[in-house]
UniProtKB/TrEMBL annotation:
It catalyses: L-lysine = D-beta-lysine. Keywords: 4Fe-4S, Iron, Iron-sulfur, Isomerase, Metal-binding, Pyridoxal phosphate, S-adenosyl-L-methionine. Its cofactor is pyridoxal 5'-phosphate; [4Fe-4S] cluster. The modification N6-(pyridoxal phosphate)lysine is found at residue 331. This is L-lysine 2,3-aminomutase. Pfam families: Radical_SAM (PF04055).
Length: 347
């Protein structure tokens, strides 16, 4: 295994940052790029939750199709402003698990570190679209407080990097954080949850892959992919490089109305993921976040879809169907036989 130096790391171009800089931030510009008439869609041109869509992701969308499943995930609509009973600002009650700025600790043995407040894409269904990121930013000078929290709790064996999106930090900053985490003896695993490589495949840099390969921590990258069309040939080599570096690649999806709520779409997604070396991990029932009720699907439909996946796919390509319920100490498996939900010790 070759050790990569900081000098070598600086040579690799940060193409992903260039792509982020030229992302679409106005719905009219995105629709023009897609050859769509804004009158066809009830867009919110000044949404409270801003639009952000990287161009590589937009290039995966079908032109002149207002029902494209990728477009539906990122285009702000006026109906987001409609209040709907039961849909709240904090559907998972994360504020009660916000142990200190930048830390959410609600599961046994695992702690979630919010390293970044921003994302490379603003998904309209995001359950953290109202999260108080301003109160949870961790400046470099505050990082020792986070490390102290981990050091003082030997029960914690896994650090989960989240956000926002942790891969919004550059490779050098992430390497510094990794140095510190590796120095905590009771930590054994590192998990990175990110959608950034999905929307900007250039983020799968060789520099970061090689740094993670050198780590003593077992590393898992969990991607957030909801539709097979989100995977392009541009992802293939990057994902292979990270897999060859010893990382486990998993995917979690959210069941979204009009995006992936039919069996062929979900089956194609699992097949496509495996073709790219990624295992399906979770299929999440929708979190009832305010502003996104139009994405929700009924639980009995989720059960039916999951049953059809089980009937048509090998078991290793069937993700666990789960729901996260505020206050519970684990994910909740949706029981397909009885229609009941049972605890599942996962995150």
């Amino acid at each position: 295994m070759r050790i990569i130096t900081r000098t070598e790391a600086a040579v690799e171009p940060n193409h992903w940052q260039d792509e982020l800089a030229r992302a679409f931030r106005r719905s009219d510009e995105l629709l023009e790029f897609l050859r769509l008439d804004p009158q066809q869609l009830a867009c919110d041109h000044q949404p409270d939750f801003p639009m952000l869509v990287p161009r590589p992701y937009a290039e995966q969308m079908r032109k002149a199709d207002p029902n494209d499943p990728l477009l539906l995930q990122v285009l702000p609509l006026l109906q987001e402003r409609d209040p709907v009973e039961g849909y709240t600002l904090d559907p998972l009650d994360e504020t009660s698990s916000n142990a200190q700025p930048g830390i959410i600790h609600k599961y046994h043995g695992r702690v979630l570190l919010m390293l970044a407040s921003g994302c490379a894409v603003n998904c309209r269904y995001c359950f953290r679209r109202h999260f108080p990121y301003a109160d949870n930013r961790i400046a470099r000078r505050q990082w020792q407080q986070t490390l102290d929290y981990l050091r003082q709790r030997p029960i914690i064996s896994e650090a989960i990097l989240s956000g926002g999106d942790p891969l919004m930090l550059d490779d050098e900053h992430l390497s510094d954080i990794l140095d510190e985490l590796e120095g905590i003896a009771h930590l054994r695993r590192l998990r990175i949850h990110s959608r950034l490589p999905v929307v900007i495949p250039q983020r799968l840099t060789s520099t970061l892959a090689q740094r993670l390969e050198q780590s003593r921590l077992q590393t898992t990258l969990v991607l957030h992919i909801n539709h097979a069309n989100e995977l392009s040939e541009a992802h293939r080599s990057g994902l292979k490089q990270w897999r060859d570096a010893g990382m486990t690649l998993l995917n979690q999806s959210v069941l979204l109305k009009r995006v992936n709520d039919e069996p062929n779409t979900l089956i194609e997604l699992s097949e496509r993921l495996f073709e790219f070396g990624v295992l399906p991990y979770y299929l999440h029932a929708f979190d009832a976040v305010a502003g996104a009720a139009h994405f929700d699907t009924q639980e009995h439909l989720a059960q039916q879809l999951h049953q059809q996946m089980q009937q048509r796919l090998p078991g290793y390509l069937v993700p666990k169907l789960v729901r996260e319920i505020a206050g519970r100490k684990s994910k909740t498996l949706i029981n397909l036989d009885s229609g009941q939900s049972g605890n599942y010790n996962g995150m």
